[in-house]
Amino acid sequence: MAKTRDRPAYRCAECGHTPPRWVGRCPECQAWGSVAEVGAAPVALRPLTAAVTAGAVTTPARPIAEIDVEAARARPTGVGELDRVLGGGLVPGAVLLLAGEPGVGKSTLLLEVARHYAASGTALVVTGEESAAQVRLRAERTGALHPRLYLAAETDLAALLGHVETVDPGLLVVDSVQTIASPAAEGSAGGVTQVRAVAAALIAAAKSRNMATVLVGHVTKDGAIAGPRVLEHLVDVVLQFEGDRHSTLRLVRATKNRFGPADEVGCFELTDGGIEGLPDPSGLFLSRRTEPVPGTCVTVTLEGRRPLLAEVQALVARSTLATPRRAVSGLDSARVAMVLAVLERRGRVRLGADDVFSATVGGVRVTEPAADLALALAVASAARDAPIPPATVVLGEVGLSGEVRRVGAVGRRLAEAARLGFSTALVPPDPGPLPDGMRVTEVADLGAALRALPR
What we know:
CATH topology of the largest domain: Rossmann fold
Radius of gyration: 27 Å
Strand content: 25-35%
Shape: globular
CATH architecture of the largest domain: 3-Layer(aba) Sandwich
CATH class of the largest domain: Alpha Beta
């Protein structure tokens, strides 16, 4: 016989962690005041000899060669940059989780996707954050109106499933999963238990009806997806929507994708008329000038598998403070500090009494080590007041001893630079196959790279 005993159980409302006793601060997510008692937890003591008997199967097993793959073919969304990230489009029955900061453009993008889908099928958008009239105004402004695009404002899971039964859509968009509540689960909407129950019900509906489903998710203040981590394991695709409020550039990254590559990036531009894909966004990250200016250097970064040209700018000025300033925008501050130290110690560029400001152009964030050499040369150019020759692109990771290390996909990076008119490149030793028509100089260390520049 199984014996049970009751003991208090505690759960964190932020991350779902279950500590053995009440604590004021969750040991998992470090949130204060989020741990609460959830009632008695039955503990069953079963004999070790208990066994599970075989039951009826839902679908008989078949040889793998006889499985129909047409049901898993991706259907293009009509938004080319999103199709690039998804690996071709939406797969019927797939469940996607799109997370991003408030106001970044998630609802606008999905409304555009629903409008394209409605051109050949039926799409249903269920919003729990806005009224139907507010979404209708946005759709009218962005041109996303279509007779087969249905809209409902609901926060109850049962009502949402009722709309699905009535409309029978091929695409369901839920904005957002944290605003939907299930009457069968405890807690308020957005809690760990509610999010888990709502997601499980929607995933079951998507699989049984062969309906592509997109769930919009919130993020925490540190950029992580809010709610239980099990949500990311249950869905098929996890997309991160990134963007700066002061820039029109938006990036969609796939952090998990069961149907395609998980390292692709889609680029979009958010305007008053909606959101548009940018198949060639490199021009946004380069400044346009007629004469070369000291303190600027162009490099090529890899966003997923896509090479993008980015311009690194630096300004060196005599400091009037006891401690010179080091300001960074769009770059990793720790990596910038390391490059400045190597530049001063190995490259003999004196910066101890100067303010150094470094930034990127166009709001792009560059954290790849391949941009180290470009940053070092931009600072050296600013300190010497000598511009880098035009049409020059720089690649390479800088080590603490001043050596220039190899980076991946040099040929693909230089091919993108050559396509945009760059004819000269500084690269690490042994770069591999290179594009025709580009003059390439291999530099083994930081000193050799500085000597290759005009003084």
